[in-house]
Amino acid sequence: MMQPAALIAEINHALVSAFDQLNEWFAAPGPLRVYRPASGGWTIDEILEHVALTNHYLLILIEKGATKALKNLNNLDLATELANLHFERDKLNQIGQHRAFPWIRPEHMEPRGEKSPLEVAITLQQQLHQCQAVLARMPNGEGVLYHTTMTVNALGKIDVYELVYFLAKHAERHVTQIQQVAAECS
Q1: 112-to-9, 26, 95, 144 alpha-carbon distances in Å
Q2: Are 178 and 25 in contact (CB under 8 A)?
Q3: Cα dist from 92 to 40, 100, 144, 145, 176, whole Å
Q4: Which residues of 107-127 are buried (b: 16+ CB within 10 A; e: fewer)?
Q5: Boundaries of each DinB-like domain copy (predicted)?
Q6: What predicted TM-score, i.e. pTM, was given to this entire model?
Q7: Which segments of 72-159 does DSSP mark as H helices, in order?
Q8: Which of 24, 35, 119, 145 is most buried as measured by Cβ atoms within 10 A of its Cβ?
Q9: b/e 141-150 (16+ beta carbons within 10 angstroms → b)
């Protein structure tokens, strides 16, 4: 049985690592951040905006899930749920790999250039702190008491901890994409 403290520490580490790497790109020179890849893909600024947009929608699910988990609407036994915990680490880790599986993102998660890079950077930092606050509210494993259906990579029903880890891995996926754009620009 995985201990909640160890799982929360792992998730927090993934969050901090991914967000720190994203944050570094705001200091990149302007011409690099607006370079459009030959494939016509997104610029670095657009990728960063996409991550913030996606986080916004994921955090709505995370907050709702955390609230429901803490209320334990299904009257589940925490000890039993923790004993049966199977953290979908392998499938979730694939979320962090650019182009590891086919996925068409919803249109409302596509960047529109409506926020400045500074606004996006501030939003990402607020989102990191929001994720950490959610984890802090569920220190004893309560995140396993509520599940959300996630169609990405056929994940199926995932608990609140897995959903926060998903957010971290999604950010990591786009760090790789940013690195590829930067390498092409060089």
Answers
A1: 34, 18, 23, 35
A2: yes
A3: 28, 11, 16, 19, 16
A4: eebebeeebebeebbebbeeb
A5: 35-178
A6: 0.93
A7: 78-83, 89-95, 117-137
A8: 145
A9: bbbbbbbbeb
Partnered with residue 147 across adjacent β-strands are 159
Rounded Cα gap, residues 134 and 138, in angstroms: 7
Determine how β-strand 156-159 pairs with β-strand 147-150.
Answer: antiparallel
Residue 161 to residue 24: CA distance in whole angstroms? 26
Q: pLDDT class for 2, splitting at 50, 70, 90?
A: low
Q: In order of start, what are the domains of the chain with their CATH numbers?
A: 4-185 (1.20.120.450)
- Say if residues 150 and 167 touch (Cβ distance below 8 Å): no
Residue pLDDT, tens place only, 25-68: 999 999 999 999 999 999 999 999 999 999 999 999 999 999 99
Q: Which residues contact 130 (CB under 8 A, 6 or more apart)?
A: 59, 63
Let me know how long the chain is. Answer: 186
Residue appearing with tokens 């209320």 = 71
**Average pLDDT of the chain to the nearest whole number:** 92
